[in-house]
Structure formats: structure tokens, C-alpha cells
Amino acid sequence: MNVKYRNYNGVLFVMLDGELDEHTAKQTSKTLDDIFATTISKQIIIDLSELKFMDSTGIGVLIGRYKKMKDKGVSIFISNPSYHAEKIFKLTGLYDIMPKIS
Amino acid sequence: MKEVNKMELKFRALSQNESFARASVAGFCMSLNPTMDELTDIKTAVSEAVTNCIVHAYPTSQKGDIIITTTIYDGKVKIEIRDFGIGIKDIEQAKKPFFTTAKSNDRSGMGFTVMESFMDSLTVKNLDKGIVVTLTKSINSCEENLLQLG
Question: Which of A21, A59, A91 sits opposite B117 (nearest CB)?
Fold first, then answer.
């Protein structure tokens, strides 16, 4: 998984490029935690336009990050999910805690 | 229902085999002429089942085998994912949304729910050793869809 990020006007943009499954989950979580820990922002936008595959392990990764950032008062938003990622988000109710933005 | 084609895949329950497993099953289903959406449904369901084997069936570093048998019928696919692990104590509970025995915060407990919603049917059975998850899905061939549109 390739993770790119950019801090712009206090908003952290993170782009996930690759496949998010059992094999890549641990490293992706760690990379995101490292980026979140070193960047000061109150809002994080996770861009999924380059995410090629995701199963419910990906939901676990996102919920784990949400729990960590919630205590710090940071909100996380989802941007550009694929049709299929969106199906999993709606099924799991992820948008209730990480709203989709366009 | 008449069997048209069948394949069996055996591999070690290691996470690096997950993308290979879902891509192989999806590739084998291509003869049914599925839509991209149907294909991604299959890939996702297989990925969920394989993750369960890696994480739950073989919880220690000693990983056993997974056997995936894919059978193609007329307009339908059946996928059986079998492991030789520790089995499931309470299958009905395991199938409930958000239920997980994993201690990590990063487990959604949605694997069976995803399999159930992306496929037409899901059955889970404990065996003498391990479990078998059976998934089926009808494929509405692209060609037929086009003919109907035409």
C-alpha cells in the first residue's frame, strides 16, 4: 500500500493507493498512525480514488484510526470511494462516524 | 444442477496468499461472463473467508492449509473455502454483524455479513477438523443482459 499525504490549510489529505486487505492492513494502520501523529490538523480527509480493493479488514483499519483520533478531537472524512468500497461502507454504517465528502 | 467446470486451490493460510486466492477464483469465474460488480462481489467474499482462516482458524503462527473448491454450473458459481483449524464454537453468534473474538481494536466483525450480502447464499459448517464456508452466486451473464437490452 502506498500512502501519500499533504497538509493544506490545517486539513490533512491522505491518499491510499493499492489493495487494503489482511496482508496490507497492519502496515497501512501503522503508516496512517505515524502520519497522523506528526501532522497537526483538526480534519483528515482520506481519499480512496486510487484504492484498488478493500474488504472488511479495511473497515477495521478505518474504525481503529477513528477511535484513536476521536479522543484528540480530530474528524475524519472519506472521499472518492469506489462503487464497491461504498457498498461496504453503507453495509457497515461507516459513514455514521466518517462522513463522505465530495 | 449440471456441473460445467471445477477447480481446486490449496495454499498455506498466509496473508500474502489472499490476493492470489481472490484473483484466482475471480479468474476462474470469467467463463460465466460476469459483470465487474459481480466479480468484485466474489473477490470480496473470498477475501473475507480467507481472512477468517488466517486470523481465526489458525490463531498461532503455525499456519495450516486452506482449500478452495470452485464449481461452475449453468449461470451459477459455488465456492467452498475449507480450513483444518480450530473450528467455531458458536456459528450463529459468529455470523452476527460486528461480532468478533479478536482482541485488537482493528477488527470490524463484519466478515460473514459482507459474505452474506455480496453473495446469494452463505453456509458455515464445523467439520471434524476445521470448517467449510460455502458461498453461491447466480451470474447474470453480460451477453444475456445485452441481448435483453437489444
Answer: A91
